[in-house]
Amino acid sequence: MKTKKIAVTVGISVYNESKNIQHLLKSIPAQTAKSFRLEKIIVVCDGSTDGTDKLVSELAEKQKLIHLINHWDREGKKKRLMEIYEQNKSDFLIILDGDIGLANPGVLGKLVEEYIKTKAAIVGGNPQPFKPVNFIQKLMNTWEDIWFKTKVNEYGRNNIHHISGCVMGLSGSFAKSIVLPTDMISEAQLIYCLAKEKGLSFVFTEEAVVYYRKPASIKDYFIQVNRYGAEKYKMAKRFGDQVNEEYAIPLKNKISAVLVNMLKDPIFTFLSLFLIFMLSHRKQKQDKGRSRNLWNIVPSTKEGINI
């Protein structure tokens, strides 16, 4: 007797992703679909000015799974995600960012299989930095490696640090219930807390790897970190002090991750720690787009990822 396949929709909110969107959209139908049936790829274009909408439209003419919803005005990712949640009719909704690359043909299948096994409201994928193009980006990638080891070392994997907006799967019923507050930008952690508030679960699957680019310049790094400001404190105000417990990581985990990386690459580990320390103590400027629930774009993270 054949097992019924899970119906899946992929949703992507995009703003000026012309360098990568075609690579991503071509890779999605090529995914191995043993456990699921891909019903639709919804692309919501948030007022792009670089021709992203035209590129998606061209592919949609050839690939009937792709459905483009194009907007002339930019109103922010959270509003476009809400449109995707409302449009979804599938059992399982996979949300991807437009500037990532799927590491292999089994990424979507791993997310679906974890959902089938656990019935979790949210299944988190594993974003990993793509190969660096310069010295600064290599330092950023090294720091990301340390941070990943910190998150998983004895602390568990099904926590707030492992949810990422660039790759996650949502049960269809939970997606329909999501209402994203307008005063915060970190939509992934908001979704995590909304699920916890409802008594629903989150699971992280390390095998569902996607690639993204870290900033390749100090300027781009500051554009990125200035987006979030006091988000953690807003989360605690909205969901209570237990959020601070979710964010907490034991000091021994941090030390252990640094030591492991020191053995692997002492020079870049030291330099990356020094860089992050210096940058974190530099006074941040407020991202001017935050007041409109938008964020400034980081140019060096938008280069295409063609795997």
Describe this protein's structure:
With 307 residues, this protein is an alpha/beta fold. The protein has one domain: Spore Coat Polysaccharide Biosynthesis Protein SpsA, Chain A, CATH 3.90.550.10. It has helices at 21-27, 52-62, 77-87, 107-118, 135-152, 172-177, 187-197, 218-225, 231-239, 242-247, 251-264, 266-280; strands at 6-14, 36-46, 66-71, 92-97, 101-102, 122-129, 167-171, 202-212. Helix 1 (21-27) packs parallel to helix 2 (52-62). The radius of gyration is 19 Å and the shape is globular.
Tell me, briefly, the overall form: globular
> Approximately how much beta-strand content do the residues carry?
15-25%
Adjacency order of strands in the biggest sheet = 3-2-1-4-7-6-8-5
Q: Percent helix among the residues?
A: 40-55%
Question: What is the helix tally?
Answer: 12
How do the SSEs run, as a string of H and E?
EHEHEHEEHEHEHHEHHHHH
CATH topology: Spore Coat Polysaccharide Biosynthesis Protein SpsA, Chain A
Radius of gyration: 19 Å
Low-confidence stretches: 286-291
Structural class determined from secondary elements: alpha/beta
Q: Gap between N and C termini, in Å?
A: 36 Å
Biggest sheet statistics:
8 strands, mixed
Estimate nothing, just give the exact number of structural domains.
1
CATH level-4 homologous superfamily: Spore Coat Polysaccharide Biosynthesis Protein SpsA, Chain A
In the CATH hierarchy, the architecture is Alpha-Beta Complex
Give the oligomer, counting copies of the same chain as homo and different chains as hetero.
single chain
Top-tier CATH class: Alpha Beta
